[in-house]
Specification:
Radius of gyration: 24 Å
Order of helices and strands: EEEEHEEEEHHHEHH
Structural class: alpha+beta
Number of helices: 6
Number of strands: 9
Distance between the termini: 41 Å
Shape: globular
Length: 241
Amino acid sequence: MSGGAQMNVPTLRFPEFSGAWKEKRLGDLVDPKRKITYGIVQPGEFVAEGVLLVRGGDYSDGWISTSEIKRVTVEIDKPYRRSKLKSGDLLLTIVGANTGNVAVVPSHLEDANITQTTARIAIDRQMASSTYVEQILKSRAGKKEVYSYIKGAAQPGLNLTDVVKFRFLAPTLPEQRKIAEFLGAVDARVALLGRRREALRGYKKGMMQRLFSQRLRFTKPDGSPTMRAILMSRLAAAPDI
């Protein structure tokens, strides 16, 4: 990404901010004491009690429940202290079909570890917002940058030496936080609507099964409508929200 200062001034932004955005290199925004790294190469047998091991699929479509995340022994985890997670770290899938997926580590996964298919990117909080970088990498421009470095077709992947080269535009830290907060709220709304849609789909499926099996009817033996039928007709007539 490049261009003059005039090109780096967005046309849509929060009114309290001004000035041009600057091009950043991902590697320059990382905590120098916690460089970009991948995790455990051979996790061995998973255990009931042990260290949480985050894999790419655990965050590919939003974070799964902590109870579903696998665990490894303390002995397996110990040699990989370098890849331990902290709340707010950024995770990036670097191997497989989901290469390029990104997520921010929640507080309940503090001290968990990762596999070799995931890169931990410890953003320096004084230089950038990890949630802003997450949103950038999820954007069309960010994905284009990521995909330009992906190698392989059958087994796509990213080299850590290329991850540090990712470039993108960024405003001042306060504006980054404002943007990330706004887009995060939109994400939360989308997720809520998605859950509601799935609930309605489940309801419809159940109703279809009951209707077509004749276990549910909307009329009484005398032909008059049941209360359920009355409520359903009112629901159908109600305006969309």
